[in-house]
User: Which sequence fits this backbone?
């Protein structure tokens, strides 16, 4: 199945206009929403699952081709692919994920990659040092990914790593960084609200107003 041919054959100009506008006209779109896109690519993923079960390796050439395609839907396909087959990831694949984070970067692609990144780091704890490196990067999207890569891990969250990634980004004026700090804490509060409350009390003077507000949403509910 040629994913590129199939999706391009379903182009919807009106939807594409509105989708591009929502993303501040930073990317081209085919105009295919997530649900129909996943239905259209389902046969490809089924075939790929069988190939991988038979001993194949992740097709990074396919992922890179998706990332190079001008239409944003193909980056969505790539993040779906990596999320679905994340169990096949190896430590050396983090360098590929890093390149994706810093290329054609926006919140949609980065946020779609973070749970895949988090899974890989959780499986191979030596990669935690890479998350600390990312948290100090000059690239804001790597810093955002480092802060939120443990989303959804609940009691498996590494508190020290979460704390360090956040503390490394206090003082930032970047909206996407300060939003990420609040999001990470709000998410972890579902598992350990006491830890989050104590962390916020200890660092209250360092919080941006946005981070504080976002972190408190769950605590105040």
Assistant:
């Amino acid at each position: 199945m040629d994913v590129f041919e199939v999706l391009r054959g379903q182009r919807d100009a009106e939807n594409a206009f509105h989708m591009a506008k929502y993303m501040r006209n930073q990317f081209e779109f085919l105009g295919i929403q997530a649900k129909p896109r996943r239905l259209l690519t389902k046969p490809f993923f089924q075939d790929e699952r069988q190939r991988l079960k038979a001993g194949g390796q992740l097709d990074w050439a396919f992922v890179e081709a998706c990332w190079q395609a001008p239409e944003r839907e193909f980056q969505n396909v790539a993040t779906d692919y990596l999320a679905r087959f994340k169990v096949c990831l190896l430590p050396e694949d983090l360098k590929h994920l890093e390149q994706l984070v810093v290329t054609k970067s926006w919140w949609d692609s980065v946020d779609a990659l973070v749970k895949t990144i988090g899974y890989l780091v959780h499986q191979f704890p030596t990669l935690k040092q890479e998350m600390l490196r990312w948290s100090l990067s000059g690239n804001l999207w790597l810093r955002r990914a480092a802060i939120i890569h443990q989303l959804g891990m609940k009691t498996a969250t590494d508190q020290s790593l979460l704390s360090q990634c956040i503390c490394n980004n206090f003082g930032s004026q970047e909206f996407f960084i300060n939003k990420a700090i609040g999001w990470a804490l709000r998410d972890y509060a579902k598992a350990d609200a006491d830890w989050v409350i104590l962390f916020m009390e200890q660092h209250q003077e360092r919080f941006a107003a946005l981070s504080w507000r976002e972190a408190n949403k769950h605590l105040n509910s």
Q: What stands out?
A: The chain has a mean pLDDT of 97. Residues 1-88 form a domain with the Leucine-rich Repeat Variant fold (CATH 1.25.10.90). Residues 9 and 30 are 9 Å apart (CA to CA).
